[in-house]
Amino acid sequence: MKELILKNHLNLPFITRMLKWHFSYYILGRGYPVSAGVYLTDTCNSRCIMCNLWKKKNPYTYPMEEQKAAIDALSAMGCYYYSISGGEPTLVKDLKERLRYASAKIPYVHLVTNGLLSEEKMVSEIVSTGIKEISISIDGTEKFHNALRGREDGFQKAFNTLKLYAAHSDKLQLTVNSILTKRSLSELRELRKMLDDFPGVHYKYLPLSVHELFQNDAGIDKAFPGNDASIDEMEAFLNEAAADDRNVNSKIFLKKAKLFFRGQEDILPEQKQCVYSYHAVEFGPDASVYPCRTGMNFASEISGKTDLKEFYSSAKCSNIQKELKSCKRCRNTMPLCYYEPRLNFPITNLVKYYFSK
C-alpha cells in the first residue's frame, strides 16, 4: 500500500484488513482485493501529449449501479483502498453520489483529477462526501504544464483547484501528482517552491511510462519541452525527493526510479513472481473487471455484472492469478499504480525493501 496510508492512516480497520488478507494468502492460499483502481470514464477535458485516451471516439463511463454492486462486494471482502481516476472523473455528473457511496463502504477513498473544473461549490461537495484523499495533476510552472496538458488555461485552473481544496486540508489529504521525465527537473523544483505556500499539501512523482494504459508510444518523452538531464542529475533529483517529508513516494519506489531512468530492462529482477493480482483489482470504464489490466492485455471476460465475492472464491479466479504470477509485462516500465503496491505489499516486500540498502 502507499506510504501515505502507512504514515497517516495506520488504524484498526487498516490493521484488521491487512491481517485478514495475509492469513488468507499465506495460510489458505487465496488472495482477494485490498486495493481497487477504478477508471471511471474515458472522457477527458485535457489534451495531454503523453496520453491519448482523450482521442477515443466512443468513450465509456462506468454504470453507477454496477459500480455500487462492486463496491458492496469489495467492502464485504475487506477492501481498504479505492482509487478513482479516468479519463477525468469530475466530468461524470453523478460523481458525488458515487464518492459518497464508496466512502460509506470502504475506509480510504482517493480521487485523482486534472483540476480543470474548479468551482468552489463542487470542491465543497466533493469534500463533504467523506473521501480521504484527492490528487491534482500539476507538472511544473504555467508554460510547461500547459504544453504537457494541451490547455492554455490548464495551470491556472489546476492551481486554483489546489487552493480551493487546500482550504479543506484538515478534512482530507491533498496531493499534487507530477509527471517525471528527464526534461522536467527544473520545472518540478520550481513547483516544489510554489508548494511551500501550502504546508498541508504533499506531492508524488509519476515517471513517464510508455504503457497501454495511456495509449502512448515510445519516444513520447521527446515531445516534452527542454533538454534531457544526465543520469547523475536525475539521481540527485530523486535523492532530493527522498529527503523531502512532503514527498509521498515510497523510498524504494524512488530508488527503483533510478534504475528506470538508467534504462534497465528489468526493474524488479528480485521479484521472481508477481502477486499483484492477489491483492488488487482494476475496473475499466466499461465495467469490465481485471485482477490486472496489463497482465490480461486489457482483455477481460469478467463483466461488471459478475458477483465479485463469488468470482474471487472460484477456480477461474485462482487460475487467472496463477497465470499472472509469471507475467513480466510491466518490468521495463514504471506506472506508479502498479509499482507502489508491488514494492510495498505484501508485508514480506515491505520489510525486505525497507531494510534494503
Automatic annotation (TrEMBL):
<keyword id="KW-0479">Metal-binding</keyword>
<dbReference type="GO" id="GO:0003824">
    <property type="term" value="F:catalytic activity"/>
</dbReference>
<dbReference type="GO" id="GO:0046872">
    <property type="term" value="F:metal ion binding"/>
</dbReference>
<dbReference type="InterPro" id="IPR013785">
    <property type="entry name" value="Aldolase_TIM"/>
</dbReference>
<dbReference type="InterPro" id="IPR007197">
    <property type="entry name" value="rSAM"/>
</dbReference>
<keyword id="KW-0949">S-adenosyl-L-methionine</keyword>
<protein>
    <submittedName>
        <fullName>Archaeal radical SAM protein, PTO1314 family</fullName>
    </submittedName>
</protein>
<keyword id="KW-0411">Iron-sulfur</keyword>
<keyword id="KW-0408">Iron</keyword>
<feature type="domain" description="Radical SAM core">
    <location>
        <begin position="30"/>
        <end position="257"/>
    </location>
</feature>
<dbReference type="Pfam" id="PF04055">
    <property type="entry name" value="Radical_SAM"/>
</dbReference>
<dbReference type="GO" id="GO:0051536">
    <property type="term" value="F:iron-sulfur cluster binding"/>
</dbReference>
<dbReference type="InterPro" id="IPR050377">
    <property type="entry name" value="Radical_SAM_PqqE_MftC-like"/>
</dbReference>
<dbReference type="InterPro" id="IPR058240">
    <property type="entry name" value="rSAM_sf"/>
</dbReference>
